[in-house]
Amino acid sequence: MTFFAAPVRRLTALACLTLAGTAVPAAQPAPAAATVDRPAPSVEWKPCPAHTDEVVRAMGVTEEQLPAFRAQMKRLRCGTVSVPLDHDRPDGQKIGIAVTRLAATDPKRRLGATVILPGGPGNSGYLDPVLRIRLRNEEIAKLNERYDLIGFDPRGVGASTKVACPPTQGPRPEPGPLTQEAARKIYDAQVAANGSCGRSDPAFLGALTTENVADDLDLIRAALGERRLNLLGVSWGTHLGMLYRGNHPRNSGRVFLDSTAPPWTRQDDHLAGSAGAAERNFARMAAWLARNDEIYGLGSTTQQVRDTVLRLVHDHDKTPKTFTDLQRPIDGSAVADLARRNSTEWARAGRALAELRDATGTTAPPTVKELLGPPKAAPVPGLPETLNLTMNRAVKCNEDASRPAFTAAWNAYQERVRRHPVTGRAWGLGVECPGWPLPVQEGPVKRGKGSLVLSGHLHEYMSAYEWTLQTQRAIGGTVYTVRDDVHGSVTRLPECAADVVEYFVTGRIDRGCDGSAIPN
């Protein structure tokens, strides 16, 4: 029988909570218990869920891909692994983690198992072996030749044990410049919503941390009978990969992390870094629009384009445009949102900016309506959950040591708009965690010696490139530079995906790829 060593961890902040969620003085930490061998968990295998063609199409599968999707689903095994809600109390309450396995197609040359780490936090990863690997392109699909592909829904998401916070509705934003009075209402509503959410089920919500998900993952490893797990992560999945590799070094194999997260979890620093990267990338967009002035008419130089868009931000803040077929007026924040699009959307964003400059009618111009129009239709019945917002909020806020007071948040907003005049309005007040009632639980990253590749995109703002370099300084690894601005694009692009597969097969990697091409 396979055995695993139960992790010996710090006393969690959950011990400071009563069942009602009220903070009480923490007891003195108990002496560390001796490591105890416990029987490895097992996977409770069961039939995979069946989905109609309508649901599968809603997942993003094209008509041409439907037969391949069905074929891969026949190969997929689905199950559940039972893990402790609190890893410091392994004999306490258990929760279920949904897991899938797509066996290697060349079992004689099998190299092991690679887990696909989902983004978010809060994204589902249950079907990632099929959707994100087998169907994405031929190059990344080759990863399944010599590796089993493992997918899972993190605790709090999808088919795993989860809870939902009480629904809340904040004030409807008024069009035009954000005033201090309006910002205060937004802030107070966020405080109230966070308090209501965090107190609704503090024992479960307080256990939603990246570090706990990493420990769940190690129990999945044991349940699958794998000596090591290889990791392929994107976005939040990169932070999960860092913590797994640092906390379970003996059980980590090759690790490739794309759009690398920073080695810290403060939301205020995250917003500041993203906002700076977005404004820098607009300079590239403006230069491209200038080269295509005969199409968009926004200016023949980078400075002219910048001046044009800045005037649009100011003009639409002063006099928001109301179109009868849009649910909200178009103000400066909407213009700023168009200006921070990545290169795959520059053509459409350029058309929308030109349309807004010239619009005189009562209905929205076509590209404006396409990019800034009403929200998408209601989800198709039976569509699996792709993002759990309760888990997203809990993980972010449990790990956020900033939680700014209103004055700090307002001052940061004003400074952001001053420093980033073109795109800064797009971020709004930018507060997420004030009023979150549960203790801060930061899982520190650790330097390791195992194989690690950190993929950073030179111009993207969701995971700013400087974070990749900060993370390398903190934990080591090789930097793989993608010369684009598209979040998590590596496995989508065949030439980059081929490098990823080569790394997992041989352990070798070059220093980068071109990434998504700038449009002509």
If you had to describe this structure to a student in words, what would you say it looks like?
The chain is α/β, with parallel strands linked by helices and 520 residues long. The chain has 2 domains: 3-163 and 205-264 and 452-513, Alpha/Beta hydrolase fold, catalytic domain (Rossmann fold, 3-Layer(aba) Sandwich), CATH 3.40.50.1820; 165-200 and 266-384 and 396-441, no CATH class. The protein is built from 19 helices and 12 strands. A 10-stranded mixed β-sheet has the order 3-4-5-7-6-8-9-10-11-12, sandwiched between helices. Helix 12 runs antiparallel to helix 13 and helix 14 packs across helix 15 (366-372).
Secondary structure tally: strands: 12
The appropriate CATH architecture of the largest domain is 3-Layer(aba) Sandwich
Main beta sheet: 10 strands, mixed
The side-by-side strand order for the widest beta sheet comes to 3-4-5-7-6-8-9-10-11-12
What structural class do helix, strand and pairing data support? alpha/beta
Strand content: 5-15%
Task: Give the helix level as a range of percent.
Answer: 25-40%
Describe what is shown at a glance.
Helix content is 39%, strand content 12%. The chain is α/β, with parallel strands linked by helices.
